[in-house]
Design goal:
- The chain contains 10 helices and 9 strands.
- It is of the alpha/beta class.
- The chain has 2 domains: 129 residues, Rossmann fold; 66 residues, Arc Repressor Mutant, subunit A (Orthogonal Bundle), CATH 1.10.10.10.
- The protein has a 5-stranded parallel β-sheet, sandwiched between helices.
- Helix 3 runs parallel beside helix 4 and helix 8 packs across helix 9.
- The model has no long low-confidence stretch (mean pLDDT 82).
Length: 214
């Protein structure tokens, strides 16, 4: 049986010491491959355009360029991989805007290294990675959109599953929480995907931010 290809990562951070430390951490993980490490979007752009990159680890504060601007540039380059924002700190509003802009997760630099590896694998599978404060900010933002013209109507089970997705729960964890089978959880997720017109959990989170949930 052929070995599964390793996830190819790109690191963009303007602090050289952090890049070197993180590079050593990623090199020690068998399922990951660091394709490049850069201090700015301008430096990283050629590699993004030429190589297969599965996940970009992007610092929010790149000096003259902010993370939201970098995400916009990635979109203009038609980047098809996932973006994990790795940051020492962000305003709650910026976190919400980053999720809306299409990133798959936010990782705080003071967290444990093992959590970063877990976050990378999670978002590579199409899941989301968000800390509790970000989840709270998203909930507040969603509530503030109650007057939005477009409305998404969910039943009780769909609301419960959606809430668990916001919290970053796996299908197994949702199954245990709701006392239903994992196959039933998958079926409810598919209903949510069908109703919102998305294909991944990360897309589901973004759509839920933009629509009124009833």
């Amino acid at each position: 049986m052929a070995a599964r290809p390793r996830l190819r990562l790109l690191l963009i951070d303007d602090h050289s010491l952090f890049r070197e430390s993180l590079g050593r951490l990623l090199a020690a993980e068998p399922g990951l491959e660091l394709a490049g490490s850069y201090s700015s979007m301008a430096e990283a752009a050629p590699a993004i355009l030429k190589e297969r990159i599965d996940v970009i680890l992007l610092d929010f504060d790149l000096g003259e360029e902010q993370g939201l601007e970098a995400v916009a540039r990635l979109r203009s380059m038609a980047f098809q991989g996932k973006v994990l924002m790795v940051t020492a700190g962000m305003r709650e509003l910026d976190k919400v805007r980053a999720i809306q802009a299409g990133i798959a997760g936010i990782f705080l630099k003071h967290s444990q290294p093992a959590e970063l590896i877990s976050a990378i694998y999670h978002i590579a599978r199409g899941e989301v990675w968000l800390d509790s404060r970000t989840l709270q900010a998203i909930a507040v933002s969603a509530a503030a959109r109650a007057d939005a013209p477009q409305q998404l109507t969910l039943n009780d089970r769909e609301r419960t599953v959606l809430k668990a997705v916001f919290e970053g729960c796996t299908n197994k964890e949702i199954s245990a929480r709701m006392n239903i089978s994992e196959s039933y959880v998958k079926a409810i997720l598919q209903q949510l995907f069908d109703k919102t017109g998305v294909r991944t959990r990360a897309q589901l989170v973004r759509v839920a931010l933009e629509k009124r949930i009833d």
